[in-house]
Amino acid sequence: MSDFLIDALTHSDEPHVVQATLVSASGSSSKKIGAKMLVGASGRLLGGVTIGGCVDAQVIEAGDDLIARGGRRLLDISLDDDEAWEIGLTCGGNVEVMVQRVAPADTRDPVVAAYAVVRDALANDRAVVVATPMDGAPGALTLDEQGTSTGSLGDGAVDAEARAIAADVLRAGSRDATVTTPAGARRIFFDRFAPPTTLVIVGAGQIAMSLTAFARELDMRTIIVDGRERYATHDRFPLADSIRIGMPSEIVAGIALSRRVAVVLVAHDYKYELPLLRQLLRAPVGYLGLLGSKKRGVAVRDLLREEGFTDEELARIRTPIGLDLGGKSSPEVALSILAEIVAVRSGKRV
Amino acid sequence: MTAYRATVIEHFRHPRNRAPLPDANRAADGANPLCGDRIRIQLRVVDNTITDARFTADACALCIATASLLTEHVRGVTADAVASIGGDWIRASLGSDPPPGRTRCAMLPIDTLRRAMGNAIP
Fold first, then answer.
1. What are A108-116's contacts with CB under 8 Å, separation 24+?
2. Which domain covers residue B40, as residue numbers?
3. Dihedral sign from CA coordinates of A207, A286, A128, A124
4. pLDDT at A83 over 70
5. How do residues B35-44 score in pLDDT, each as one tens digit?
6. DSSP 3-state assignment of A161?
7. Contacts of B35 in chain A (CB under 8 A)
8. Hey, are the CB atoms on B33 and A229 less than 8 Å from each other?
9. What total of structural domains would you count in chain B?
């Protein structure tokens, strides 16, 4: 979920907004579970629950009604279209979209309180899950990576079971689940929010410039690292979140590395690559890419193997870097690098 | 392979004294703004004599090799003697002069060492 959506839920000056969340999908769905759209009382729209317009249009219509009436509803929307079916152009399947009215200025609103927790967790680099009943009952519960839980779904036993499911969702991703209580079964949506990927770019050249521009669209934080003041400038990298100049191996040693960090070595200079690879091959980064030809990659691996790195460790270096999209220009190479990072982050075998 | 090339590769692959010096009392950072070489030289100086010298660097092979040779050479050397280290020492240590345009790579550790001598740290 983008920062601007969280801002809109916790700091909007509109008295009410409707939050729509894609909570389940069967058949073909073009967006991930948890995709969101906000509908403002003024007609303002943020985000989207599907990539196309047909479902979003129905959500907007329901949203306008909810703004007036309040509450929470589950929309069951068919993606089938008889005419489209006839000519073979339908996606097919069903999606469920949970829509709920939220009062952004009301800190007693359980959804607003939950999103304040989300904002705080993300600011402190922690993933968090928000559990929301799908049956229209009020309440929301959160659980973060440190085990801290806030809010309630209105019943101690339900809360306990929801926290156990939320702990699993923290590892696996957003989904709905049914919690059984003496009063009956309750469907609950578990929405996972994780801090953005941090993209550490070593080498402030043309590819890095394209990387910072594209990464912003992907909600990644970017850190430019170089030893050359004339390259790593704010003029060249107006969209970078951070520009750090100095000895690259020292700079990267000072960055908190985790599976949410992707490091791309695009300086194409062994003076930076070798010290950094020695550090990073045994660090828990989620992605490690090295710009260069296949032949150069072999030479780098051979050199590091002689220093004692294992084949398993050396296999973590993605070189030639990026998916093979066939492009050669700097923006095309940057696109292929980010495509590979997204694929790796999504668990694809590439 | 020439003696020059063999020396540079040997010291780049197996640099001597490439590590932080915890009890350093002199230090300086050096950089080549064009190529991006970065080096830090740390010294332990007692009674005007270098008793230990180490370096850390993200730099090219020639710069690393020169720093490796230099930190070996200056142990036991006085401050006055450091001033005389220059082109002749590079030629003698590497087996020949660096190629045209690469002199600054070899000079960076020497310039940084000289500045370190005048830069006492608490």
1. A110/A138, A110/A139, A110/A140, A110/A151, A111/A9, A111/A19, A111/A140, A112/A9, A112/A10, A113/A140, A113/A150, A113/A151, A114/A140, A114/A141, A114/A142, A114/A150, A114/A151, A115/A6, A115/A9, A115/A10, A116/A10
2. 3-117
3. negative
4. no
5. 899 999 999 9
6. helix
7. 228
8. yes
9. 1
The 10 Å CB-count burial string (b at 16+, else e) for A71-99 is ebbbbebebeeeeeeeeeebbeeebbbbb
The pLDDT tens digits for A51-69 are: 455 677 778 888 888 888 8
pTM > 0.90: yes or no: no
Q: How far apart are CA A120 and CA A11, in angstroms?
A: 14
Domains of chain A and CATH, by start? 14-102 (no CATH), 106-195 (no CATH), 198-345 (3.40.50.720)
Q: Is residue B7 part of a domain?
A: yes
Q: Once rounded to an integer, what is the mean pLDDT over residues B63-82? A: 96
Output the domain CATH number for residue B49. Answer: 3.90.1010.10
CB-based contacts of A72, cutoff 8 Å, min separation 6: A98, A99, A100, A101, A132, A133, A134, A136
Instruction: Quote the minimal CA–CA distance from B47 to chain A in Å.
Output: 31
Chain B residues with CB-CB distance to A under 8 A?
A: 29, 31, 33-40, 56-61, 63
Within-domain flag for B90: yes
The pLDDT value given to residue A91: 58
Give residue-wise pLDDT tens across range A101-130: 888 888 888 888 998 999 999 888 889 999
Shortest CA gap A286–chain B (Å) = 24
Interface test with B, best of A231, A271, A280 (most B CBs within 10 A): A271
- Residue A130 has φ and ψ, to the nearest 5°, of -110, 125
**SS3 category, A18:** strand
Q: Which residue of chain A comes nearest to B64, CA vs CA? A: A271
Bin A326: left if φ > 0, else alpha if -120 < ψ < 50, else beta. Answer: left
* B54 domain-assigned: yes
Mutation target to probe the A interface, by most A beta carbons within 10 A, among B37, B58, B64, B108 is B58
Tokens of A131: 């559990």
Q: How confident is the model at residue A84 (pLDDT cuts 50, 70, 90)?
A: very low
Contact (CB, 8 A) for B42 and B21: yes
- Position B100 scores a pLDDT of 81
Residue B122 lies in a domain: no
